[in-house]
Design a protein that fits this description.
globular; binds carboxymethyl coenzyme *A; two-stranded antiparallel ribbon; mainly alpha; tricarboxylic acid cycle; Citrate_synth-like_lrg_a-sub
Length: 489
């Protein structure tokens, strides 16, 4: 349904363009206005004004970093960043963490309601039965170097996985494969959801084992989602191997907390990628790449590197001063949406205590607590409403459980596959179909220029360095040798 026609008696916004004297009225619906309304406002080019500034083509809405741009109507996750509220499909995160499990919550996020006991049984069994990967995958994982970052492996592995499922590829099966919403289309969609969630732990465990020089383990039967994950990573042929139930439960709670967080950078990347109607494996690989960055899912790894560099509580004041001088970043603090403590951080902190009872306290805990305390009472952080986010404490738990440092973002990405799929499914089935995400730019480059033949060109002031000016340290030995011999590369 389109927006109603504007009428001044309605909930609307009147915009007056002082350049032309023109006014337009825009209907406000769901506390939002369509950015395209502003295209109706255009001014003629002034004499001498460059045509590339597109003044005559309608006003653009500029929003670097999407600070106030809504790109979806969504029913999945609600955040009130000022009050520190997070709900999945209406259920407070605290209640889900207390009573639900990661897989039950995954069903809720993807399909919209909590499953009945029979629905849950089918769902869990489908996900767990789709955990095995083709034996060929072994060669793929072995092709990575021993020191490859596991997020590089996992990101590639999701794209690789898609190559097995031509039935899920709209480029091969037709572009309406996932958007029809009929029973066949929904069934194909469900199968990819089972596979991606079921195999996420298997791919992650393989990324771990390949670097440890261990042989791969077939996903076991009869264990929970996180139990199976721990088994696949840790099992070394012991008889009756069982993951520690407290650690298994703690990981399940962490997975549930990480399952979704509305339109963060990686979920947006998944939707942006999927808006071209590419297959879901490619879209999830793109999301995984986006999550890897230290401002997003890589922050849990960055927090521990930061705590190691601080070293001890005694060095905290100097570190805080360096942050205030903008020489350092306090990883694990701050959030685009939360302007108070992230509600997940309280649950993570509590879970940390449960884990430490088994593993013993992490030696970095005291430094983390001193840093937390110092930041929370410092004017710099108070003024900017910077408080701990989910990543501040989670790394300490992962470390205590024995995961390698660079594996932490993987422990964020695996559960987040659920949220990415929930948003992907919602987008594919949204009324009115999928529109490709294609933002606009504000062009500030050169005006029209004439091509000058190379022999007549004079290097322009400020132009980039020519190859001869680049130091040889940037060129590989192979390249230099080949060039020296005059060989063709
Ligand atoms: N340390 C020091 N100063 C900070 C921090 C921080 N962690 N975060 C924000 N600020 C300052 C920032 O410099 C700015 O100051 P000023 O107004 O004087 O220029 C002000 O606070 C507002 O910050 P912003 O950069 O405009 O906020 P943003 O919404 O663009 O960025 C963020 C959000 C999460 C990228 C940022 O807070 C950050 O870099 N935090 C550290 C990395 C981190 O912990 N990321 C995990 C986020 S939660 C889990 C997830 O989503 O993956």
């Amino acid at each position: 349904m389109g927006r109603p026609t504007p009428s001044s008696s309605q909930n609307s916004l009147t915009v007056h363009d002082n350049r032309t004297g023109k006014s337009i009225e825009i209907v406000i619906e769901d506390n939002s206005i369509p950015a395209t309304s502003f295209k109706a406002l255009s001014a003629a080019l002034e004499k001498g004004e460059r045509e590339e500034n597109e003044t005559g083509k309608g006003l653009r809405v500029s929003d670097k970093g999407f600070l106030n741009t809504a790109v979806m109507r969504s029913e999945i996750t609600y955040i009130d960043g000022d009050a520190g509220v997070l709900r999945y499909r209406g259920y407070p995160i605290e209640e889900l963490a207390l009573h639900s499990s990661h897989l039950e919550t995954a069903y809720l996020l993807i399909y919209g309601s909590l499953p009945s006991s029979s629905q849950l049984k089918v769902w869990e069994s489908e996900v767990m039965h789709h955990s095995v990967v083709h034996a060929d995958a072994e060669q793929f994982f072995r092709s990575f170097r021993y020191d490859a970052h596991p997020m590089a492996i996992l990101t590639s592995a999701f794209a690789y996985l898609g190559s097995y499922y031509s039935e899920a590829n709209p480029s091969l099966q037709g572009q309406t494969l996932f958007t029809k919403g009929n029973p066949e289309s929904l069934a194909v969609m469900d199968r990819q959801i089972y596979r991606l969630i079921g195999k996420a732990t298997t791919l992650a465990a393989m990324a771990y084992r390949v670097r440890q020089g261990r042989s791969f383990v077939t996903p076991p039967t009869g264990l929970s989602y996180t139990g199976s994950f721990l088994y696949q990573m840790d099992h070394l042929g012991e008889e009756n191997y069982k993951p520690n139930p407290i650690l298994e439960k703690a990981l399940d709670v962490l997975f549930l907390l990480h399952a979704d967080h509305e339109l963060n950078a990686s979920a947006t990347t998944v939707l942006q990628t999927a808006s071209s109607l590419v297959d879901p494996y490619s879209a999830i690989a793109a999301g995984c790449a986006s999550l890897y960055g230290p401002l997003h899912g890589g922050a849990n790894e960055a927090v521990i590197r930061m705590l190691i560099s601080i070293g001890s509580p005694a060095n905290v004041p100097a570190f805080i001063e360096a942050v205030k001088k903008r020489e350092k970043i306090l990883s694990g603090f701050g959030h685009r949406v939360y302007k108070t403590s992230d509600p997940r951080s309280f649950i993570v902190r509590k879970t940390a205590d449960e884990v430490f009872k088994i593993t013993g306290k992490d030696e970095l805990l005291e430094t983390a607590m001193a840093l937390h305390e110092a930041a929370m009472k410092d004017e710099y952080f108070i003024k900017r409403k910077l408080a701990p986010n989910v990543d501040f404490w989670s790394g300490l738990i992962y470390r205590a459980m024995g995961f390698p440092l660079d594996f932490f973002p993987v422990l964020f990405a695996v559960p987040r596959v659920v949220g990415w799929l929930a948003h992907w499914r919602q987008m594919m089935l949204q009324p009115g179909g999928v529109k490709i995400w294609r933002p606009r730019q504000i062009y500030v480059g050169a005006s029209k220029r004439e091509y000058v033949p190379v022999e007549r060109r004079i290097p322009e002031e400020g132009s980039r360095k020519t190859p001869s000016q680049i130091s040889h340290s940037g060129i590989s030995k192979r390249t230099m040798l080949a060039t020296f011999k005059g060989a063709k590369l």
